[in-house]
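Lab meeting notes turned into a lecture example. A postdoc, R.K., suggested we walk through two folding results consecutively so the class can see how the record format repeats. The first protein's sequence and structure tokens come next.
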Amino acid sequence: MKKHLRKIGVTTLCLFLMFSFLSGFLLSIHTAWAASERQAAPATETTVPQTDSKDAQGAFPKDDQGNYIVGNSGEGVVTLSANPEYLKTVPLGDHKKSMISTYAAGWDNGVIYSSDFASPDGTDIITTTTPIIRISDNGVDGIAYCADPTLNIPSETTGPDIPITYIRDSANVQNYRIRNVMYHGYHDGQNTEYYVQTWAAIRVLANITSYASYYMTDPVVADLVNTKSYQDPPNWNASWSIVAEREEATWNRATQRQETGWFQTVCSNISEHGQYTVNLPQGVHAIARNTSGQTYGDYTGSFTIYDDDDFMLYADGSYSGDVSATITPTTAKRFSTDANIPDACVIYYPDVPNTQRLFVSLAVGSGNMSASYKATFKGKNVYSQFTKTDEETLDGLQNAHLQIYNKDTDELVAEADTDELGRFHVELFPGEYYIKETKAPHDHILSTDPIYFTVTGTEDSMTMDVPNAAKKVEFSFKKVDENGQAMPGVEFELYACKYDKAYSDQTGIKPGESDKHSHSELAGADDSCWTTVIKKLTSDTEGIVNFGELRSGEYNLVEVKTKAGYQLPKGQWRVTIDAEANTIDIKAKGKPLAPAVKKTATGLQLVNYPNPQMPYAGTNDSNRLLFSLLGALLLGMAFVAGYKKFEERGKK
């Protein structure tokens, strides 16, 4: 019995060893075959022709970039970079799960996009090849990625005659990390292999793959998932603007020029900086300032500076006008093209079964930024003083109302009443202006003609006299005798006070000398103030004496020579004229007083009386004889009376 059992055990052991050897041999053959098949597959696919009769006949239409349109996306299309006629999914068969090779084969310009992902121990490898897929939707063209590699690729199920419609899923993957991977991963200009690594990283982050650990062994995928997914695209939601410290240029007396404030650039979320260019009109300069506060440059024409540097403008005093522009820096901003789901990885699903869904990021867009500025130059602020003056005395005139207008626009610039010195102050920019007077100063005629003037901007200040003519009244009278008859040939002098600037030379007059002055009683004395003879006139054949128009003030009238036989007045006349009221008042002065002036319906009359005289001897004039006899009689009577008194004294 024991011997029989020993034989059974030996036989079983031999069979086990033979079976193990055979299994190992078969496994080695199978492994070698699988490896050779994996290496041979891409080479076989690259030999497939790029075109065939269907493509030549336009079975699948192309977009402007030459990509094949294989489906619709509502507002756009789905395209493949490779000819859909050569795309197919290789059956997986009964391959070991850990050794599955998934193919979605295709070409872009004859290049197969592929990537190998190995397990940590290097024994298991997953290989994927795919064409580049794009989706355009709502005007945005984005790179798409297959979400279900085991299903058919776009167009494989339906063919060119029945295009697939891809519908945007309302349930999006709202994940800023996927958005960042789609930006930092494959996009136009990157190397071709990056497309597959990006696809793998998206699947890892979206948690829709059982091969995450294998994908993460690829250093590119690991970097996308662990690092790049946390980095927003450069200049994400960036903004760039210009803030004016002061738009209107003011006059800087220290630098003797018009200067604006700083036009300060405000950069937000900008990591990749650019530059901007400013164009200037002739006559305007610019100075720049960097982020350290250091100023540099003195630019004319145009200048280019960094997008975070500031600038200010200046011009000389004669420049006027607006300077404005919209500036677009070379700095690009990146932003969400869909404000409602800014961090979305959008999923599109097909309207046919067994076909892959597609990932696409519509979140990252790129565009320019711009900002506008405006500077206003009005020219140098010139301190301008206008003085309303009497055209004869040059004294300042108070309470004249003046208005200043811009000549080009007729715009009222300033207005005011003149002060007690006749002055009116205003700051004016360079330009042409005119002055209008709307209210005359007291006792003066309103000036109706505008006075034009120019502010050049080259001066620090300007002064200007605006003269006014005084109102005047005509002073005339008639010289008559005691009977009211005209007396021609009578001479008069009209005096003005030596302090009267309208008539008297003020040479030798000290400032303030005339303050609290009172007029002298008569002209002719050594200390009299009536020293200036305005006019000397002689009454005409009608007895008229006309001194013409006289301004308001006091005058002294003296009769210096009269007609023979008439008394020359020892007194004089004080003439007071109020031109504003249009009145003349005449008062007699001196001891004895001069004859009074008569006011008649035809004007003023000045009367002269004859001298009292004795009769002329030898004349036959009856009146003179009568007076002579009467005088002799009176003398006789006086002699008789005197003699009688003498006799009476003798008797006593």
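The second example is placed directly after the first for contrast:
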Amino acid sequence: MQEGTETTVKATGILGGIATVLNFGGRTIVKTYDIVTEIGGKTFSFIGKTASSIGSAVPNVFEGVKNTFSKIGSTKTRELKEKITEYEEKIKKLYYEIGKESSSEQKLESEKINELIAKVREYEQEIERLNQQIQEMAEIEKLKAEEAKKEKEKAVKKKIKPSDEQTINAIKSALDNTLKQASFDSESQREIFKKIASDLCDEEMEVRILASAELGKMGIPVVADVLIEAVKFENPYLIAEIINSLTNIGDARVLGICKDNVKSPNHRCRISSLRGLYKMGTDEDIAPHLIEALNDEHPEVRRTAITFLGWKDIADAVPGLIQSLQDKDDSVRKSAVTALANIKDDSSVLPLMRVLGDDNLDIRKKAYDALVSITGESIDFDINLKGKALNEAIESLKDWWQKERIAKINEVISPEPFKEPETSTEQITVQEQVTIQEETVKEVIQEETVQEPYVVETAPEETVQANVVTDEVTSIEQSTDTRQDEVADNASAFDAEWTEEALKKKLKTDLINMCKSKGIECDESYTKAELISLLLKG
């Protein structure tokens, strides 16, 4: 019996000595079987006394190593990672040795095992030290990158090109002409302008930018010439400030500068260009630039374009604004909701209903307000719903809107009772005149025939009278034909202008004026689609 027990202990020890090592994703898991043996009537659990203190620490260490390995560093960083890998392999071998030692019948807390455990802890500490060093190096690299970026931006602002000398000369010439020809409110204003405008020629770009801003604050048109010359420095920061200043003083030449810089590499310059277009341009002129900016890489540019489109009430931008409802930036989505609420196009209702499920509660609230404004209906919806209840509420709202739209479409396309075309009073009058004149001619001829049936020659007076009547009849017939042709041409032109396709191309303000000219009641709250429907029905 004792012999069998010894065999069992040895077998168990051998199984326990074979450590299962898994190295996946930088994490090492070492699992050692508990060896239970009886020495002197006492039972010892090897793992419980020796390995438990390090079992929980090892995964954490290797987890940190895994996270560190996910970053690509410099050559020094790679060297440190290689050392960590070496220590990891050594730890695995030590655990294997610990497993082998645990199979012996000697005391488990032997000096050999203690030495192995001490080495494991030593390697763990070294791994932790190397890992911390890698993290510190990563932080240093990050700081260096940020500093390099700042230095690059600073260099762009301060960069002086050989062509700058020509620009400086042009600014000085414009300044001299302005001082000679322009009129100022006072001599002090003139001196202030001279001092600030001279700063545009300073070597430091920061000084030039500040000078551009101050000239704009003066608010007088005479500063425009020197600012336009300063654009030739071709610095995006300076150009952005010049555009703002020219826009503030209302100089129309800013439109050309805005169009040239609306695709500038600098996002602040793009924003200033969009603002200048919005302030100084017409709807037809600026709409393409604003719509294209909806796809800009910078969220601030996208938000600016959306805001201006909403303020301008540009209906052609609705598809792009609907797409912006899915933007990853919260401020962009919020601006898109507000813009669609201003334009009030029915096609935006369903997309706005989907926004009611947005993660941002404030955006949900704005979407709800927009739906109430566009539909003109009191909508019962709880924006605080979550999960399945929220999805069901949105679907229910969509079903309601679909039924409303179908009902409206049926009203628009329902046939009206056929009415006989009315003949115009003017045409009736002309036709009656022609008939009367023809009858008069016939009566005259008949009277002539009855009175003198055998007379071949006609008296001169009678011949003249008959010719006059005949000429009058012919003239009236020609006049009637001309009027009918004009009516037909006008009707054809009217039909071409009032087709659905032609109406869609018109601006909302034009549609409102057309409705009013036909006596159709409408106002700004009507959507473009509703105005077209009224005109086609009217």
